[in-house]
Amino acid sequence: MTQGTVYGVGLGPGSQDLMSVRADRLIRGATHVAYFRKKGRCGHARTIVEGMIPPGAIELPMEYPVTTEIPFDDPRYNELLAAFYERSVAQLIEMAEAGCDVVVLCEGDPFFYGSFMHLYTRLLNRVPVSVVPGITGMSAAWTATDQPITWGDDILTVLMATLPEEALAERIAQTDALVVMKIGRNLAKLRRALVHAGREGEAWLIEYAAMSQQRVLPLSEVGESVPYFSIVLIHGHGRRP
Question: In terms of residue numbers, what domain contains 193?
């Protein structure tokens, strides 16, 4: 029997009309669809494709055993997630070995800080795997500001707000243009790092980029908390004609 293929399909930033033609085709023709979600939730990826999955398609929700309940540097965090990814991979392999193609829904781009990467490295050389790229959330975020993010020789740095404050401040001070993700509970720390780098006044916050709830405002006007789907930007001002 010919093995099926596991497709990691990038959905883009959250709007169906920003998906690629290939992603749209694979989802609308899928017989088996897998996606990540937090326990008790529908899952953002699944919400994005509402109305696109064919009737009768088999769905495989992959529920994270932990998200923010314990710190990511706690040894239990990696242990729980590693076991979760192994279980998920076993299910996907079982489907592929039965000759079924499986579409794994991935927010943004599958190879850019996505959970699918942890499946991909475990699936390689075991079953066929194919990745469909998607527009990243950060691309949608800087487009929402109506300003280019980089010019000429500008250096763009992408940071996770989970980094130590000192490391954040150092990187922010060194770069021309900036993207900061995974803000959540790290907003206060990120603000202090921006102040230390002398760049707080340049920062913008984009919530729900390319989604119906999209909001763009200077970081200085933001309250004490932000939604999960938030990105902080600093635009570059480099060489231009």
Answer: 137-234
Structural domains in the chain (count):
2
CA gap 186, 61 in Å, rounded: 28
pLDDT of residue 69: 65
* 174 lies in the same domain as 84: no
Q: Comparing C-alpha atoms, which of 186, 192, 207, 230 is closest to residue 68?
A: 186
Tens-digit pLDDT profile for residues 24-41: 999 999 999 999 999 888
Q: Give the mean model confidence (pLDDT) for residues 82-96.
A: 97
Q: Supply 10's token pair.
A: 């990038």
- Distance, CA of 5 to CA of 7 (rounded, Å): 6
Radius of gyration of the chain (CA): 19
Q: Which residue, 188, 183, 168, is CA-closest to 138?
A: 183
Residues 114, 62: contact at Cβ < 8 Å?
A: no
Rounded to a whole number of angstroms, the distance between the first and last alpha carbons of the chain is 59
Does 144 lie in the same domain as 106?
no
* pLDDT higher than 70, residue 68: no
Mean pLDDT of 183-207: 97
The pair of structure tokens assigned to 219 is 């970081």
- The pTM assigned to this predicted structure is 0.94
CB atoms within 10 A of CB 15: 16
**CATH number (domain holding residue 103):** 3.40.1010.10
Give bridge partners of residue 158 from the DSSP assignment.
179
**Residue at a domain's end among 82, 107, 132:** 132
Which residues fall within 8 angstroms of residue 131, CB to CB, at 6 or more apart? 7, 8, 10, 110, 111, 116, 120
